[in-house]
Amino acid sequence: MFIRSQLTAIFAFGSCGGYSGKNIVSLFCGDGRNETLDANFHYPFRLSQVPLVEGNTTLCNHSVTTTHLMGDSASSAEFFVGIAIVCFLYCMVALLVYLGYMHVYKDSDFGPIFDFVVTAILVFLWLVCSSAWAKGLQNVKDATDTDGIGNTLALCKGSNITCEVTEFANMRTLNISVVFGYLNMFVWAGNAWFVYKETRWHSQKFSSQTGPGRQQVPAPI
């Protein structure tokens, strides 16, 4: 159980936290010339701090000032990675408790109940952070595609210059990170069920269900 949870958490923050990509933007000037720009972006995806055009530059015979990409998905990306790291560390601590102090864990009501409450909270947090990161990832894609670049560069608006993203970064690992986020939610939901069975709530419910069946049968006369 712990190994599975650790692996899914590692894949989640590993596929998101170390990402960097580059889109190549082609500018088709009205006089037949073409120029290119590099749109580089990386985790944590603070796109508003990523320069698309650095300094005063001349593009297609037009002076262009420093221009940054639009959008900021840092909060959702960092929240997603943070939850994955917390889950990984919690698995390490829980594994040490299970291996070294299992007798204390079994003999106490506090241990299983605490474990169940934390696990249930993590299930909810995985749902929230995965949904937030899925939306943040879509914002990154929108900001770095042709329409997003066209809205960012004033040069592309109302002129005979056409701006188009001609080479896209591979975002497969980011898509995979979203999938692993939701997978973690289901994995931890399964963990919550197994932990729940260790609590007194489950044992009391089981005892109340089996209690009436243990009534003594009167002896035949």
Keywords:
221 residues, 7 helices, disordered C terminus
Stretches where pLDDT is under 50 for at least 5 consecutive residues are 213-221
Question: C-alpha Rg, in Å?
Answer: 27 Å
Q: Estimate the global geometry from the Cα principal axes.
A: rod-shaped
Q: Which strand order do you get reading across the main beta sheet? A: 2-1-7
How would you name the oligomeric state of the polypeptide chains in this document? single chain
DSSP strand count: 7
What summary fits the major beta sheet?
3 strands, antiparallel
Q: How many helices in DSSP terms?
A: 7
Approximately how much helix is present in the residues? Answer: 55-70%
State mean pLDDT (0 to 100 scale).
85
Q: Assign the structural class, choosing from mainly alpha, mainly beta, alpha/beta, alpha+beta, or little secondary structure.
A: alpha+beta
Description:
It is a single chain. The protein is an alpha+beta fold. 57% of the residues lie in helices and 16% in strands. The chain has helices spanning 2-17, 74-100, 102-107, 110-144, 146-152, 172-196, 200-210, and strands spanning 20-28, 34-42, 51-53, 57-59, 62-64, 67-68, 162-167. The strands form three sheets. A three-stranded antiparallel beta sheet has the order 2-1-7, covered by helices on one side. Strand 4 (57-59) and strand 5 (62-64) form a beta hairpin. Helix 1 (2-17) runs antiparallel to helix 6 and helix 4 (110-144) runs antiparallel to helix 6. Mean pLDDT is 85; it is low at 213-221.
